[in-house]
Design goal:
Chain lengths: 295, 113
Amino acid sequence: MCTTCGCGTDQVTIDGKTHSHGHDHDHGHEHGHDHSHHHDHGPAHSHAAGVGAERAVAVERDILAKNDEEANANRRFFTAKGILALNLVSSPGSGKTTLLVETIKRLSGDLPLAVVEGDQQTSNDADRIRATGTKAVQVNTGKGCHLDAHMVGHAVEALAPPQDSVVMIENVGNLVCPAAFDLGEAHKVVVLSTTEGEDKPLKYPDMFAAADLMLLNKCDLLPHLAFDADLCEANARRINPSIQVLRVSALKGEGLGAWLDWVRSAAREARGRRIRSSAGMGCGAACTCAETAKA
Amino acid sequence: MHEMSIAESVLGIVEESARRGGLSRVREVRLEIGRLAAVETEALRFCFDAVVRGSVAEGAALAIDELPGTAWCFGCSRTVPVEARGDLCPRCGGSQLQVNGGTEMRVKDLLGT
């Protein structure tokens, strides 16, 4: 375990390089401050006065506070540069990488894009992205089941995305663990494919609760499947009444126009946040990005 | 198994808090975990026991206070108790519920010497 920065595993690699912290750990953006207060309540169960008496120490700290601080640092970086960061989450095999490749092909003339690929092993997905001419950084989590904000901070450093670009973060294929880890993204986008069950939102509710958009992928296969797309949408809305749903086929291109419009609109909002925060107007969201952007 | 990451985060907070609080041994760590937080408490206990080895909290007991889940029911226009995401409203049977409590994951306090 890396004790320099506290990252959870020494198995993480970014573009094949071990995440060893030989560098000075300068992210180009500051990490959040620790506002926790530690009140020493003094002897709680002391049977005898003096040394060795058991004491209680109040902590009152969110367990994922460190990840959240790093996620906020990533978010401030994205805001200051007008970057739209999307965190794509799904089961393995839902078609995330195909969706990314087809999205890149259609948007690359419009919007600068860059990709962070997360997988336990191999650089296959980053290779597929790079084949489109788009810059991609592969994070291998080793045995890790999710990306965290720290890994993404380093990957984005390596990626050096330009101002007003779109950074797509393809999380490890896993419908459970990535739900809990904020990466600093503007939106989680959950991809569910029609070859899975329509009850997946009920079986894995945390991910659907955390997502702002669900892409129902492989809809070209619907005529051949017993999958009830309306029921699937209803299940997603039962978990998250405000989730948006788009039906697409990444492979055949059906429905991708609405998804591209959604990305363009979100990218305009990200650019707007940059302009407002650089003018000291705040981004309108409940965050501290304006203060940091000015600093 | 993101419980391993969570256990490592708990240990980081415990080590820092023990240092600040002047504890050289931690005997008990108390957590508050909401019913709707994405944490399997038995997996967390297993991971906690593994990650604290060799630390100031080696062998420490893990006490977990479970906090209730609640959601805003759009039908009733009020907060209602829920056991799990996707539950129907216990008052009106409606499915338009937005979770508004029970996702907490906090280190509450430590006991030690």
